[in-house]
């Protein structure tokens, strides 16, 4: 081969060289522009000094929320109460409960009026246990009733939070201060009140059963074993109280998590123990 023989010998090699002569510079320009225009880059480990990171480090572990002067409790949203307390039966129509949105099933009930519907919910009716005195206040149950009725054709007005009571100290403000012995005598009963309020009832399991579980376990709704039915409970008892409690907390079959209640795990276990004892 001669020293001065040309590198490009065929038309294909010529085309390849021409294409590379255009593509390579363009590619280099694009890469350079991307690098230059990428903006400010944060070095690894330097996010610890950002305002967000500093705020997160100095934020108190516990937060607080100022309550109103009257101490009135804010009502929870009607839909939240419905899902936690009513949805287990009204979503599937268990034990004859009218399904949410079923205008035909709700029509005769809506005609009775809001007060009648609220009374049935608070006192209980048929397989539905009484809701009064449970996890939710009467006003919250009322709002859940209105939510279901209005979703099913009614036009009830949503109940509002009850007005806060006036402070007791406002009325006797102009009365002269009593003699020294009087406050001492009045303080004695007040000191004893917290001990009674904080005492834990021994029938916590029965109470939760009556407010959250009874609606299905009395009539055997959706395959729920009836209270005291030894034959139905026998295969379930093999899992033990802890196993049954885990199933209730997670939900199983038609039963929503925690039976649709907001009870604590300890309360759920107490309720399971109550039903297990009734089946032995």
Radius of gyration: 35 Å
- Could you report the average pLDDT, rounded to the nearest whole number? 74
Stretches where pLDDT is under 50 for at least 5 consecutive residues are 165-178, 180-201
Task: Using the alpha-carbon principal axes, give the shape.
Answer: elongated
Terminus-to-terminus distance: 104 Å
Strand content: under 5%
> Helical amount among residues, as a percent range?
40-55%
Helix segment tally: 11
Class by SSE composition: mainly alpha
Annotation, overall tally of beta strands = 0
User: Main sheet, how many strands, which sense, barrel?
Assistant: none
State the order of secondary-structure elements, H for helix, E for strand. Answer: HHHHHHHHHHH
Q: Would you mind describing this structure in some detail?
A:
With 280 residues, the protein is an all-alpha fold. The protein contains eleven helices and no strands. Helix 5 packs across helix 6, helix 8 packs across helix 11 and helix 10 crosses helix 11. 21% of the residues are buried.
